[in-house]
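Note to self: the last two entries modelled the partners one at a time, which told us nothing about the interface. This time every component goes in together.
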Amino acid sequence: MTAATEPLGPSALRRGATRTGAIILVDTAFSVLLFVGTIVGVIALATLLWTILDTGWARLAADPVAFLTNYVSRLPARAGIRAALVGSAYLMVLTALFCFPIGVGAAIYLEEFAPRNRVTNFVEANISNLAGVPSVVYGLLGLGIFARFLRLGPSLLAGALTLAVMSLPVIIVAARESIRAVPESVRLGAYALGATKWQTVRRQVLPAAMPGTLTGTILALSRAIGETAPLLVIGLPIVIFSMPNDLRDPVSALPLLIFDWTSRPQPAFAEAAAAASIVLLALLLAMNAVAIFLRNRYTIRW
Amino acid sequence: MNGLFICAVLSIAVTVGIVAVLLVDTVEFFRESSLGAFLTGTVWAPGQGAGEGGQYGVLPLINGTLMIGVGSLVVGLPLGVLTAIYLSEYANPRFRGVLKPTLEILAGIPTVVVGFFALQFITPTLLRPIFGEDRVFIFNAAAGSIAVGLMILPIIASISEDAMRAVPASLREAAYGLGSTKRQVSLRVVVPAALSGIAASVILAFSRAVGETMAVTIAAGNSPKMTLDFFTSIQTLTASIAQTVRGEVAAGTVRYNALFALGMTLFLITLVMNLISARIVRRFRQVYS
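The predicted structure of the combined assembly is written out below.
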């Protein structure tokens, strides 16, 4: 207060100038800190990818065909990922078949038909809680219900059902967001032309919401395919020397194999684990690329 | 229409299924092992084989889980919030457009691969040279914490950034009008206004860290103990489940039932944290929209 009443002498001006200088300094330091903090995450990602490539590339590049088509082996040099790769592919397809229709159905119901009442609120709260349940708990669900109670054992079917149940909340959320993004005018236009509620949903809303829904589904599947814990808990095998012919047959999966190789002491198995990780990351990258392509190519901007 | 309704209600069946599965065997477990010993016991040493016996005190596992939870927040919270402030207030749109997908990639790396990275890089190349070979175990809580910290960083960053972006521009403009600098606007207006969102992201991230299985199983070890030493090997609730199922336990044994008691503990902890987080998010949404 007193400063304001004093006449502004040269010393006061200098004080002001150093104060401004200090503020500029602190502000610059702060923006540098922010940038550094942000870039640490990027550096960590780069280091991770580099470590995987550096450890595994030689193993993969030496004989990619043998690595992809050999079964596992006690000798790290002969070990391949055939059963795991095929198992992961089967698991992914079956998981998608199980959770896509149910997820989209639930989303349509909640967005288009559900009355605003307690049951609906409960279902919604329940879905968002399910999305936060740890994957290992889904594994226990799969072990208790699919593997033991329904007597499916550690099979392709039990694995796919477990992954489907785990992915369901994510797909429902993605589908709901795409359905919500379809403007009301589209629905009103359809009604004005005499369409019933069901026809409107089936022929207008659903096709318009499909790119977003598919994108969300692919992202959910890429999460599911990288999951290890639930498959480990239901007891899917790692050492397996056959292709599944039946839904009840046991299958392995890439993350399971990576985990197994990672926990072996020989360095050659660490290299094999890194090589298998490269294959898994490439698979996920491809799925993400498809998702981004669908989003950019087919999403309608209203 | 009825079919659609069944699809939606199926999600409730999943919850009921989880609770039922966990409850049945948990009850079975507590028939043979007392609840008091489970909750207050400081030794987790499951019985081996048919003879059974063994001690089932959950505290060492809770201890390990909390170490990973807190340790990963020490890594993920500052980095996540700095990233959120940078993305929301400082980054130009073009750089932001590159950074956000990059962080999404980090969030999408399978946890087993992150665990491999922790074991092959974080411990031997980062921790051991800095803190000493004989000080840092091959399997240690610090490596697990850093690995999980990297996994929760994108969660904290993206939810916190959403909360910061939801702060109305008028608040920022008012602060600028009073002569504030960008740092002052960020730290004294935007961050306090978005605090509940940041808190929600932190609780959610903590819940993810508690539920994380593979990275901690691979990097943090499998020796349940009451310790606060981050350079020694520990075991979390999730890692204990993973270790037990790898050993092919027979259904009906105490050890098998203990799996579900651990699962129940984990489910309840994460459920409570997710509910708190969801409640906070709902509240901050109401304030600004």
